[in-house]
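Service request form, structural biology core

Requester: graduate student, group of Dr. S.
Request type: structure prediction, single chain
Budget code: on file
Notes: please return the result as structure tokens.

Sequence provided:
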Amino acid sequence: MTSISVAKALNGHPHRADIIQERPDITVKQAEKEIQQWKQAGRAQKKKSAAHSRKSKRTTHTGRLPLRVAEKMIVSCGEKVAT
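Core staff response, request fulfilled:
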């Protein structure tokens, strides 16, 4: 029988029902360890994804300025912008 404390410790884990079904007599410490491992895996995945995203942004840059930025630069030089 799983205690309420274990259920609270596993709250937020996407596979909490599976964990409780596989190990009905899991302790609070074990549940907390499961959550900690899940969070660490998520952080590692986010870092990996962010690094990939930064790399892909660098390689796909076309060198063009957004229109608003270009317009501001032209206006600051004293030229009129046709709208």
